[in-house]
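Sequence, please.
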């Protein structure tokens, strides 16, 4: 398998200014399905940090009191304790929109203040387009080679899980006791499905470069005078230099890793991405030209006909290609206009996919065993059980062009020996792990899911049984499985017309330079 058949080459990334390598080999990447799994591992790693170790993190939302384990500690306390033990703690937290819009400006500031009080530094970063966000969610832990074991203990966590309320859920999906506001359909403790990966090996140094490029950006973190004054008064405007990066960790496994990113095009250009970067979009467009048998996708949004087009073209090109897609049942915003604005893009995207591959595209949402919808926040894609991606990016224009994003794409050098041949172990195991949960299968009862056509039928049969049970008034034992067929969004013409401007300008804006928008290139 040639890596450049699936990964972007350096020129294909479209950003000569970055310091990132095109990809690294010899990594070990482990999926951490569910926030509870990720948080428990993160808590253990933070507890092991000592003098002169390094903790770097970025976050879209951070709640300082969010417990990493059922009995603590909170996020801020765990990081503060590391700083008190002599670790160097640096954070880049999106400043966020206002709280009354269901965002987290107060929580993000408080997280930064608690880290500052313990001797770390956390910047509130608004170096984004107006209305945009820093949506990257990653943590890097590097260890001082003189005192604490050196690069072999280094790890990076990359994916879609924020360090905040509602994320600490597990396979039972009863929700995080510390819940964030969500529409009432998700209940008082919204069930939450999400995925992160733990990376060991040379790619850890590449994730560190992503942080360093943003930290060393000379532009001010905010251009609003009041906010700059407030940051200076609380020491959150201090930008001390980072230490020189240590050596990259040694090889740890069989996984090649490519880091994919989105940065918008700004008038005050990023020095590390003068015209932005859209390698997330470019990677999808490249890998979908190779799709032959199955695209498995879990996504929070699935919006935009421009973004869905390479998926549709793959279906039209390959008559044997199937797609299994898992999305949330309800939007995360439920206002009279906010809800329809969230559904417009999905309605158009689903219509395009169905035209391209009628009978070969299946779209599901999830519920727990109590019948409560599970909010799908995961951003996972597996193509032909070869290429796999886990990140912060959703399938929409905002994630592909407007916000900052970071994704980890993986190609495993180890073939999966099970038929059908051609699969790679990491990608296939990731798909099967997720399928086992959604179908309520034991890990040893997955052989029929190896073949893409059989997997497609197994999902359809499971969802049909559960849907029939609901139609029958939930009489008798509940059938196994958590999948429900996802209904096509229905919008009346008035609400659609009123919501369309909100969708185009606020919900799913386009952050490409004008010349790329005109040519519909990325």
């Amino acid at each position: 398998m040639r890596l450049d058949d699936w990964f972007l080459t350096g020129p294909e990334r479209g950003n000569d200014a970055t310091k990132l390598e095109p990809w690294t080999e010899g990594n070990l990447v482990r999926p951490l399905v569910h926030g509870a799994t990720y948080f428990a591992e993160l808590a253990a790693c933070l507890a092991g940090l000592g003098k002169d170790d390094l903790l770097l993190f970025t976050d879209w939302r951070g709640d300082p009191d969010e417990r990493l384990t059922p009995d603590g500690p909170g996020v801020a306390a765990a990081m503060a304790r590391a700083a008190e033990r002599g670790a160097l703690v640096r954070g880049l937290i999106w400043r966020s929109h206002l709280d009354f819009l269901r965002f987290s400006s107060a929580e993000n500031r408080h997280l930064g203040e608690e880290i500052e009080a313990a001797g770390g530094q956390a910047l509130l970063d608004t170096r984004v387009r107006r209305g945009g966000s820093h949506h990257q969610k990653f943590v890097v832990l590097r260890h001082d080679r003189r005192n604490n074991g050196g690069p072999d203990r280094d790890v990076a966590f990359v994916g879609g899980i924020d360090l905040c309320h509602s994320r600490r859920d597990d396979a039972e999906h009863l929700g995080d006791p510390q819940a964030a506001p969500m529409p009432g359909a998700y209940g008082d403790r919204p069930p939450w499905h999400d995925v992160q990966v733990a990376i060991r090996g040379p790619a850890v140094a590449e994730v560190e470069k992503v942080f360093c490029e943003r930290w060393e950006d000379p532009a001010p973190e905010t251009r609003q005078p009041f906010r700059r004054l407030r940051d200076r008064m609380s020491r959150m405007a201090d930008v001390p230099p980072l230490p020189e990066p240590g050596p990259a960790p040694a090889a740890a496994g069989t996984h090649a890793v490519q880091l994919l990113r989105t940065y918008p095009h700004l008038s005050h250009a990023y020095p590390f991405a003068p015209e932005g970067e859209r390698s997330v979009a470019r990677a999808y467009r490249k890998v979908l030209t190779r799709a032959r048998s199955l695209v498995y996708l879990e996504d929070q949004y699935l919006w935009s006909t421009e973004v869905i087009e390479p998926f549709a073209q793959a279906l039209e090109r390959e008559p044997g290609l199937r797609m299994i897609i898992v999305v949330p049942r309800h939007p995360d915003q439920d206002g009279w206009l906010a809800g329809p604005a969230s559904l417009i893009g999905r309605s158009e995207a689903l219509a395009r996919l169905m035209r391209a591959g009628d009978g070969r595209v299946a779209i599901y949402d999830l519920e727990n065993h109590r019948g409560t919808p599970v909010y799908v926040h995961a951003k996972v894609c597996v193509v032909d059980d070869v290429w796999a991606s886990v990140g912060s990016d959703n399938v929409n224009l905002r994630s592909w062009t407007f916000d900052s994003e970071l994704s980890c794409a993986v190609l495993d050098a180890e073939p999966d020996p099970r038929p059908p041949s051609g699969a790679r172990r990491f990608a296939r195991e990731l798909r099967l792990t997720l399928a086992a949960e959604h179908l309520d299968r034991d890990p040893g009862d997955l052989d029929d899911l190896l073949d893409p056509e059989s997997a497609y039928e197994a999902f359809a049969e499971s969802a049909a049984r559960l849907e029939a049970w609901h139609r029958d008034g939930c009489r008798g034992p509940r059938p196994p499985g958590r999948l429900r067929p996802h209904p096509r969004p229905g919008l009346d013409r008035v609400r659609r017309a009123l919501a369309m401007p909100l969708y185009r300008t606020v919900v799913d804006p386009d952050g490409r330079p004008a010349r790329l928008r005109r040519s519909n290139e990325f």
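Residues 97-103 have pLDDT under 50 and may be disordered.
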